[in-house]
Each structure stands twice: as structure tokens, then as C-alpha cells.
Amino acid sequence: MTDRHDLPAGFRWGVSTAAYQIEGAVDEDGRGRSVWDAFCERPGAVRNGESGRVACDHYRRWPQDVELMRELGVDGYRFSIAWPRVRPTGRGPVNTAGLDFYDRLVDGLLDAGITPLPTLFHWDLPQALEDAGGWLRRETAFRFAEYASTVADRLGDRVPAWITLNEPFVHMVYGYALGIHAPGRALMLDALPAAHHQLLAHGLAAADLRGRGLDVLIANNLTPVRPASDAPGDRAAAEAYDALHNRLFTDPLLLGRYPDLSAYGVGPDLRGAVRDGDLDLIAGPGLNGLGVNYYNPTRIAAPTGPGLPFAEAPVEGVPRTHFGWPVVPEGLRELLLTLRERYGDALPPVTVTENGCSTDDSLDDAFRTDYLAGHLDALARATADGIDVRGYYTWSLLDNFEWGEGFGERFGLVHVDFATQQRTPKSSFAWYRDLIAAHRAKSAAR
Fold first, then answer.
1. Catalytic pick from 23, 50, 130, 167?
2. CATH no. for residue 184?
3. What is the pLDDT of residue 286?
4. Domain count, the chain
5. How many whole angstroms separate alpha carbon 312 and alpha carbon 238?
6. Whether residue 167 lies in the annotated active site
7. 394 pLDDT band (50/70/90 cuts)?
């Protein structure tokens, strides 16, 4: 039976993090204020009133964290660059000290034999841009393109591949539609322009990066959508949810058009956001790879009242993470097969840019090891089915600030004592290290 030991030769192993979740140093060396700085100051917005003000203190302790990655044996490190650390107000003067930090980090990674894979936007919009309208405003896409160009000017000689955006679906829904993430707006369907403007930002930045000979990816949270039953209402609701969660952020990139959103009473212009030529910018010059962040499938039923055209239903009969998320490893293979069926030759090579789980505070995290093993087995079966999967980046290297949950959910291979900043590898760290070494040895023997 195909399992994780049968992943193809040349498969890239990695770990992922994000700037606001680990860096800290929010007021230092010229960094500007982000939407998460402001959101964390709202009473009740984040559990226990916590914030990423210090987080894992990675801004100072990055050499220690690179050494952990060297010990782990990973090929790649996916991290994010904080826009407000580079352009404090989102536009205008560049903060050289911020670029210097990422310059040192990139050199440190390369010295350790680790390929950097930066994400340009992982939800930490400069607050000054949010004050001017944020992602609801078209102008933000052009400011993002300027910022991306600035970073590429500094790092593009050593960084071969870039991720433009992380999880634009989650940022739109949690940040602009529901208000449970920064910037904390609760606009429901009026948040849809934030989808288009993020994708436009991707298209503008991708054109610049590809023009430099650099590879471009985008990472989105994708989920296999399952109807709660075969009843027509449940199936229609599942199709409507799939259009919002998956197709809204993938069809424009790979097919050059938005999906049918008529179930939401929304036309193809996304409430006036789409202009002539925008979809050409979003779809071209194309992607070198699609980043897939997978955590769980979604079960959908027909709505029971007015409002959205779907209702979420529980996924039953499976284990759950500390966060309460259902554990369904086969959903990863199901998702990848659906992408191939849906997009055919338009589907670029896939990299799993996030996959992982929260557990309790124990250093013996056998639950995480089982979780990773199951998902990597499913991934190996997907590659045996002919899906071109180039790599796997687990979430996350370190326990970190988990957005609205504060420090209560721990996703790391490495335990962090947030009072002392002591790092201690968990049992899953050793398991992942040994798996990488075994795969590398098997590949060399082929």
C-alpha cells in the first residue's frame, strides 16, 4: 500500500510560520502599526486579551530557530514578511531596518542549506491602509504591488520562489465578513470586494515577480465540500458553499473567471469591484505552483432560515484536534483529486503549504505524529494517482500566537514557553526529522 515513504524523489520537506504569529518586536526598528496590533487592543477580541506583541520573539531569536530547522533537516522554510515592517504605513518611505532583518534571515537560511519561501501577505495589513479602506478599496492592490517590488529588489537575487497571499478566503471571511479576525469588520456579503482586490493584488505583484524570472505561488485554505445528505437542498447548498470557499479564489487564477455566485444574489462584477482587464491581470502570467492549506473537510446542509444559502453541519465519527477541528486525512487526497478533475491541464504543480493540528501542552504529542502520518499517507496516495505534488510544509515550526485564540492553541513541532521563550522540540519533531532523513536516504538509493 502506498504511504508516506513512497513520496517521489525530490519531494521538498518544510515548515511554515507567519510574521505576526512569531516575530514580536512590534514597536521596534521602525515597524509600522498593523491591523492585528489594533485588533488585539479591542476588549474581548482575542482570548485572554493576548497579542503578538512579543509572540515567540523570533525577531531576536531567529538564529536559534534556523538552527532548529537545520536539526530538523527541512529543505524549505515558508515564512511571511511583515508589510508594516517594510513600509510602515503601507506606502511611502521604505524602512531599511525591516528589510535588513529579512536579509539576515534569508542569508541564515541559505547558510543552513534551507531554501526560503516567503509569503508577502499573511493578514498583517498596515493599519494606515485599513484606515483608508483596506482591502475594500482597490487602491490597496496597487500599494501591495509596490511593496512586493520593494522586497523583491532586496531579496530576489537569493529567493527563487514567492507566495503572494496567504488564505485570502479566510482573511475576507473572518476579517471583513464576520469580524472575528482583524480588521474586525462584520460586513457579510458586502465583504466580497475584499476577495477581488486581494486577487488583483496577487495579479499585479505576480506580473512584476515573473518579469524578474521568479516563480510565483499563492496559498489558499481549500476544503473538500460534502453535502450532509443526497437531498437536493443539501447538494445545492454544498455547491454554493464550494463556490464561495474554493472556486471564488481559484477559478479566476486558473480559468480567468469568477464562479456563479447567483445563490448569494451576487453578479460576476462582485458588487462593482471587477473592472475591465482585471481578470486578465489575475490569471496572467500564470502560477508556477498552487499552495494548498488543508486542515479538514466541510459538511454542508440546506439553510434552515433566511440569510446565507448554506448551513454548516458537523463532520461526525472522526477524531478532533484540541481546536475541535475534525481529523480526516483522506480529505487531502479527495481535495487534490477534485482540483485535477476541475481544472485539468490548467492546474499547476501543487505544494501543501500548510497542514497540521493543535494539541495540548504536552511534549509527547503522539496525536500530532499520527495526524501528520495520516495526512502524508493520503498525500502519497494522491501522488500515486498522478497529482503533481512538489512539497509539504507542516504548520507549524513553533507554538505561536494563534490569532483570535491567543496562545491557547499549540500547533508547533517545537514547544515554546512564552514566559521564558525557551524552545523544546516535541516528540513530533523527532518523528518528522527521522521521516525526512529516511525519505532522503531512500531517494538517494533509487
1. 167
2. 3.20.20.80
3. 86
4. 1
5. 9
6. yes
7. very high
